[in-house]
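HUMAN: Forgive my ignorance: could you write out one protein's sequence and backbone structure tokens?

ASSISTANT:
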Amino acid sequence: MASAASASKLGDYFQYAIDHPVTLPRQKSALLPIVARDVDGQRVSIYSERVHPKFPLLGLVFKNETGMNLTQGPVTVYEGSTYAGDARIPDLQKGERRLLSYAVDLGTEVQAVPHSDNGKLTSVKVVKGVLHRTTKVKDTKTYTVANRNDVERALLIEHPNRSDFKLTSKDKPWETAADVHRFLVKVPAGKTVAYTVAEEKDFGSQVAFTNSDDQAIRIVIDDKVTSDKVKAALREALGLRWKLAETAREIQQQERQLKVITDDQQRLRANLREMPPTAEAYKRYLKKFDDQETVIEDYQKKIKQLQDGEHAQRKSYDDFLANLNAE
């Protein structure tokens, strides 16, 4: 049957104009063919674990090659002269392609199984004293397809499209939509085919060595994924930090001992003010005060040396971290 209408575009809208006038008797109606043209369609099976975990759907890859826009509506599918099922098409522009499903494919069975070796791989490197850890999450799933039909099946596997994961499979998707990747798998009649989809996701973290405590660094050193070069660099950095911390503790100890003597000198000054110079105790306090002055000078000198050493150690430590690069 030839088409009785032609389509024209009106801005974002379309209309179908009747090419030839139609005369209808009073209180009568007529069905007018708007589009009567062949369209391109490929028979496929469509598997989505969310729709049915075991059986795919029979469907069509439908492409609008009519040269007109098609409005949405119901579709009846026949295989030869046999009724196969019903579907519904959305609005289709010229040349647009859509998937239509119309029945369950009971002759094909799919089993989706995640791999047991899915897990995490971590890499560690140090760049200018900053510790970088990258954790790679591996996610792999195998779809085992059994075709019990007497003809080959073209199966479209719908695998979730997760924006934070990237595909690492060697095969590219037949099509990628907003929510799924579609992989086309040909399954011969009476055969079973296994198809694997692999993905990876990276988690990155970084922290300055100076902001990490010793225990956190030891955990990184003991981790089996840390390379020998990184382990050696971290151990050397820890050694420099320990020496610096040891010098700082020594300075604090010397300063505490110095404070004990200077506090005791306040007591001696008070006793000397209250006691006559001729008293025997006055002479003893005065001698002790004079001896303490010598000790104070020794402590001050030693503290100064330790502070100079701490300054040099800190500079060496900072310079080492600034040039620390290992992976």
Summary: The chain has two domains: 39-66+93-211, 219-326. The first strand starts at residue 5 and ends at 10. Confidence is low (pLDDT under 50) at residues 1-8. The chain is about 30% helix and 40% strand.
